[in-house]
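Posted in: Protein Modeling Q&A

I'm a second-year student putting together a small comparison for a lab meeting, and my supervisor asked me to include a predicted structure for Carnitine O-palmitoyltransferase 1, muscle isoform. I've never done this before, so apologies if this is the wrong subforum. The sequence is pasted below exactly as I got it from our records. If anyone can share the structure token output, I'd also love a short note on what stands out.
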Amino acid sequence: MAEAHQAVGFQFTVRPDGVDLKLSQEVIKNIYLSGVTAWKKRAIQFKNGVLAGVYPASPSSWLIVVIAMMSSLYIRIDPSLGMIDAIKENLPHSRDYMSVQTRAVLSAILFATALWLFLIYLLRYTLKALLSYHGWIFESHGKMSTSTKVWLSLVKMFSGRRPLLYSFQASLPRLPVPNVDDTIQRYLESVHPLLDSEQYKQMEILSNDFKESKAAHLQRYLILKSWWATNYVSDWWEEYIYLRGRGPIMVNSNFYIMDLLYMTPTHRQAARAGNVVHAMLQYRRKLERGEHAPLRALGTVPMCSTQMERMFNTTRIPGIETGRKQLVHFRINQHSNAWGRQTHTVCIHMKKKMENCLILTFPSSRVPWARARIKYFSQGSNKVSLDSIESAAFFLTLDDEPQGYDPAITRSLDSYAKSLLHGKCYDRWFDKSFTLISYPNGKMGVNAEHSWADAPIVGHMWEYVLATDCFHLGYTEEGHCKGDVNKGLPYPTRLQWQIPKEVRESLTSFTQIADDVDFHGCLFSEFGKGLIKKCRTSPDAFIQLALQLAQFRDQGAFCLTYESSMTRMFRDGRTETVRSCTSEAVAFVRAMEDPSATNAQRLAIFRKAADKHQNMYRLAMTGSGIDRHLFCLYIVSKYLGVDSPFLTKVLSEPWKLSTSQTPQQQLNLVDINKFPQYVGAGGGFGPVADDGYGVSYIIVGENLITFHISSKFSSPDTDSYRFGQHIWKAMVDIQALFKPENDKKTVEHSKHVHLENGKKHI
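Accepted answer (user: helix_wrangler)
Welcome! Here is the predicted structure, written out as tokens:
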């Protein structure tokens, strides 16, 4: 018993002549080491907090300013323009307190400190003003104007050296509130290809009525919020889109990330799980201290790191009526063992040992789960066990069925995806910030709860973990973890549960949800980013137009399409929507399906559609998107009790095609040219609409694109495998357009290169 093992740390017996106390040297040693570790951690956190707090300056710069001020006293130059003397006059004059010389020195130090703080804020707001410029993102790839080059140099100059994870937070600009007229105009433009003339005319009437009657009133409140809050969208987005949702989060909200695609470092489940857990705790330690490098676009423009704060020790707790205060982040220093040493709590689920005792606590609809939590899990052993899981760093489940990509097994990627997305419903803790899943063949994966952060945040951690696992920790020739055995670790404690019958019976409804998910993983290997870039077009625009072509061939109609983009160039930014089904995209698809159209015509239309998509994506990233603005206007209207048929209509429109790209963020961790087998497979999510598709994709290196496609078996109109085949053909068909004789730009480029070569030859 773990409790008994820990209880014998010290012993005492009562004798007639007094108390005989026997102390264990091992306990004293552990107490001493715990104190040293705790104080060392606090010192590092304090130091890094100071470094981030004064960034882009440094603490040493304060000493430089003080020395400069002190030096001015001796050469009788007053750079303060009399302010040092004014400070000196207001200090105590009595000789009992301080002498004249002491007052002069203290006055110089106080002025130097005030000047130093002023310079910090000046640097910080200068950097914020520079980061508010987004003209660079609208420039053509490979081309940079002189003004952008100057701007980039200034950003580098004001960004300081060796920034920590949170160093740039105070310098990030606020997300701007778009102009209402611009938002409405872009919205009408986005739905124009999806509506007939009568429907579009009706939508114009609704939008004009909203613009003339209610828009200005609601907009004023949003502008007020943008001045007061750090981000006018993110808190409402988290609360109303995620936490106030009353449906099950399994399949409907949570997402997954896969392991390495082609190789497994070891086939020993315990060894792989041990190394990955160790790598995660290393990542968490660096995260606590803020020692991770901030993600920066172009290697210079910083991204917001706020979402990373709740990665570990976080749980979504269900509420009956609302979603307020449901996302709980537990302070790490609350976890201690019997000796006071901080522990890295990881709750483990072993299916063979637990006898399916964790049925309701994972996917139940939020209201029944909240009621069951109050009724059955608020006291006794159930409460102790539940508290242990909810406050743990993360949840680890040891599966007993192998998964992973195997080219010899048909649709092995599909089975792997479904296992990560929902498992058997009772073997994942979907409320945890993330669940680490370990398979008996050594494969791993992650299931992540969505409300606390978006996929790139979890992806950042997973990239670090895989690289650390494979290239830093490693394994022995037998597949075991390297290193010596630590026999001083406390034994694991088995959690005790008392699960009533009515709770167990809830499994049936969630099994039905899981069984309805139709998943297909498509490894597109005909070409990749390398060839697409040679066509001088955006890989993302290329793929999005291929998805539009595949959608039309699959359904025979166009639909409202959701593509996720990020707004992390702003403080507390999360995501924005790119409406990929544009009029230009529709024109391209129709040209592809028109037998009378030539390839040259199709390619010209493709380029217009790709340019349009790129511009929309850039607008979304720079705070000029459509959907988050309309969403917030809708929330304000509900608070004010203002009825808006236009906003109601907009917010009720279904997204039959929901798409997202999984970015590769830390390319420096693994050189895939040197280690081509060490590539990730990305991740995916469940279908958003009952009769639609969910598509996630990752551009892996130069020659591979992986698609994760989901839909529902219950829909007679969808088929994930069929859609994957349509995507494959659409990609190939579009690439075939890029022949020199079809592309004027290619011909002109070839002539230019030939001329340049000719000049060199001469």
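A couple of things worth pointing out for your meeting: Confidence is low (pLDDT under 50) at residues 1-11, 333-344, 352-363, 749-762. The radius of gyration is 30 Å.
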